[in-house]
Amino acid sequence: MYRTLDVLEALGLVRHGHGADGREEFHVSPGTEHGHLYCADCGETWEIRPPQADAIIGAFRAADGFEVDLSHVTVVGRCADCMARAAG
After folding, report:
1. Higher pLDDT, 48 or 34
2. DSSP string covering 27-78
3. Geometric angle at alpha carbon 71, from 70 and 72, rounded to 5°
């Protein structure tokens, strides 16, 4: 199966990224490149929205001239619902 995914990636039909636990995730192309937010408490994941993605990419580009491969970005933290449960 993974050889098939490698071939599909080489053909530009899928792209791979990495989850918070390091495992590979595959996304069908030609979707927009995106990173993920991962809640360490409940395990939910969300795509990083374009304005936040632009801020991340812009910050690294401005500071170091570094070009971020957003498909490999996973930010681990705590979602608003889990924060509210913990506080309440």
Report:
1. 48
2. EETTSPP--EEEETTT--EEEPPHHHHHHHHHHHHHHH-PPP-GGG-EEEE-
3. 90
pLDDT tens-place string over residues 46-81 = 989 989 999 999 999 999 999 998 877 889 999 999
Q: By C-alpha distance, which of 23, 32, 28 is closest to 11?
A: 28
pTM of the model: 0.66
For the chain, the 3-state helix, strand and coil shares in percent, each to the nearest 5, are: 40, 25, 35
Q: What is the pLDDT of residue 2?
A: 63
- The CA-atom distances, in angstroms, between 2 and each of 14, 43, 47 are 12, 25, 24
Is 70 strand, coil or helix? helix
